[in-house]
Amino acid sequence: MDAASDPYLPYDGGGDCIPLRELHKRGTHYTMTNGGSISSSTHLLDLLDEPIPGVGTYDDFHTIDWVREKCKDRERHRRINSKKKESAWEMTKSLYDAWSGWLVVTLTGLASGALAGLIDIAADWMTDLKEGICLSALWYNHEQCCWGSNETTFEERDKCPQWKTWAELIIGQAEGPGSYIMNYMMYIFWALSFAFLAVSLVKVFAPYACGSGIPEIKTILSGFIIRGYLGKWTLMIKTITLVLAVASGLSLGKEGPLVHVACCCGNIFSYLFPKYSTNEAKKREVLSAASAAGVSVAFGAPIGGVLFSLEEVSYYFPLKTLWRSFFAALVAAFVLRSINPFGNSRLVLFYVEYHTPWYLFELFPFILLGVFGGLWGAFFIRANIAWCRRRKSTKFGKYPVLEVIVVAAITAVVAFPNPYTRLNTSELIKELFTDCGPLESSSLCDYRSDMNASKIVDDIPDRPAGLGVYSAIWQLCLALIFKIIMTVFTFGIKVPSGLFIPSMAIGAIAGRIVGIAVEQLAYYHHDWFIFKEWCEVGADCITPGLYAMVGAAACLGGVTRMTVSLVVIVFELTGGLEYIVPLMAAVMTSKWVGDAFGREGIYEAHIRLNGYPFLDAKEEFTHTTLAADVMRPRRSDPPLAVLTQDNMTVDDIESMINETSYNGFPVIMSRESQRLVGFALRRDLTIAIESARKKQEGIVGSSRVCFAQHTPSLPAESPRPLKLRSILDMSPFTVTDHTPMEIVVDIFRKLGLRQCLVTHNGRLLGIITKKDILRHMAQTANQDPASIMFN
């Protein structure tokens, strides 16, 4: 990289300048000429000026230049290394710089774990608040309230005198139709109150706090700047409203938003360290580690979190970032485990352990669950994107508060009568995952008992289903339909809303129903050849909870199209190493089935819907176009806006900036030769000219602007020239007009370019930007190119 293009050096740092370290060797009488009548002493003062503040930074909704940021970081690293032997202080600064990466991910992990624990505890308490209150200690949720009670019975372990339902408090009745109606009304009242408070806080204080956050984080990690998306207000409001949204009973989860919360922590802490605050590419390494910490606390899966960051959200993931992500996930999980929000010494609510092995025949129902997951994923993506597009294009989108209230009201009214939809979604998944042991009182475990069984054992043999199981299956079928419909309309409303938990709940319901069906089939037809070899009478062959787990993984995979990270997350959730093959089979099947209907997952679909400039590495470019077909200007367009290296004035450049909206301008030797010199960014030009007018005497509108190494000879009476070689990118990426577009797209993806110049025999022909590539890809896919641009 040319030192002249380093933004840390002064703007008057042309090639005829002497490096600062050489000045003291040459004495004070050394003179320099720059072709004009300006004295050498003035020139020397210019050289010793501070760097221009603001040069090398980016505007909101612009893409960063990865190559330039990496060069800046290498230059900073070289400068620190060259000084570290000069003194103990410089050595200390060098060590601090080397350790700052580990320090920032440690702080991010600590904050993520603490906030996740706080969110879990608060959401549990507020969810139970919809049903009643603990009189002995108001801050206890239902389960904690009855822990110390001596009056609980085995069948009704959640009933104790300390816990009062709203009907008992208001009308003094614990049973009967009056009690039911009062509890129903209070449930709806609290659900609407929480939902209204959540959407109001988001609308007034932090509009960026709505939604899942993962599509935007993917876009930010690919190099896009969205100022305020990872700021302090967004973090505070997202944390508060996430608790309210989960407690309102809406069909959403807190797992996706926890990734956003962790990334906010990473972004805020990165500003404490100059290494990260001044370099957008380095900051994205911290955000990759933060997203791993987010998944680590969301699921209690540190390794799954690292793989999620690698597979799903990160754009640039060097080996150093892998280690730091691992460490951030470890710290976050450790903090959450110390807080112990669920009181079960586990990182998640639905941790389960199974004792029965699976058999080869069971791969068939597992693959069927994978097919269901893929079909659900394809349906959900299409239905949800169609609804979100409708929301954007109709009046309905102008009333976000009303929409949230309507969705919350429908959810509460329909959910209350069914015990499975009234449950908190995480509690529902826990119940569906749990195997039926001797101590289970759930109606899902209401099997007809074998009277001859005298001793209690862990592995209860397969038994015929009782009335409770059949009624539970009907309720689960209704819950499945309800969850499918409501999740489509809930994901995308203006409150924090994750998708992991609702998808897992849908899969767990379907899986549990399939598991009970297979279990009953094996019980009544154990003499069939498929059961005869391995399922004897009185043996515990089928585990319905395992089917729920496999179904949950399949449905989540169908929606997000995650594979490796998803299997590891579910395996860490359940602690069951021997169930990795069923999980892999179901997740892979769901991905294949989903891909048959459309290659993109829900997050990519939302990125495209919002028109973010995101080049997906998973998308293949197979067309045979050339760079000349995509570059601008086209034949019908006006000629390319360019700067010449030494015959334009300050006024000429300012008028070009005012008349165009381009983010940068190629610099050429002359209009006749069209030979390329470099590339200057619009923002850097504006800042450099403003700074020169303030700090340098004699810079006026008619001053000649020079990008060349040597200033041309000027008449003695002409105003002082302005040298801007230091803001020029001397090595912009260029391709020839005959370069195939698939190579150009690959270069943009792998190097994270903003723009690329097109030449022919060294002469400048045009420019290709990231947006040009996205428009071209949309056209080749028969989409409207205007619809994919971010507004």
Automatic annotation (TrEMBL):
GO molecular function: ATP binding; chloride:proton antiporter activity; voltage-gated chloride channel activity
Signal peptide: none
Compartment list: Cell membrane; Early endosome membrane; Late endosome membrane; Lysosome membrane
Membrane topology: Multi-pass membrane protein
Residue span(s) of domain CBS: 631-695, 728-785
Transmembrane domains' residue ranges: 99-123, 187-209, 229-250, 257-274, 286-310, 359-381, 401-420, 472-493, 505-526, 546-571
Keyword flag Plastid: no
Repeat listed as a keyword: yes
Chief place where the protein resides: membrane
Single GO cellular component term: early endosome membrane
PROSITE patterns: CBS (PS51371)
Keywords attached to this entry: Antiport, ATP-binding, CBS domain, Cell membrane, Chloride, Endosome, Glycoprotein, Ion transport, Lysosome, Membrane, Nucleotide-binding, Repeat, Transmembrane, Transmembrane helix, Transport
Pfam families on file: CBS, Voltage_CLC
Family stated for the protein in its record: Belongs to the chloride channel (TC 2.A.49) family. ClC-3/CLCN3 subfamily.
Function recorded in the entry: Strongly outwardly rectifying, electrogenic H(+)/Cl(-)exchanger which mediates the exchange of chloride ions against protons. The CLC channel family contains both chloride channels and proton-coupled anion transporters that exchange chloride or another anion for protons. The presence of conserved gating glutamate residues is typical for family members that function as antiporters.
UniProt protein name: Chloride channel protein
Organism: Ovis ammon polii
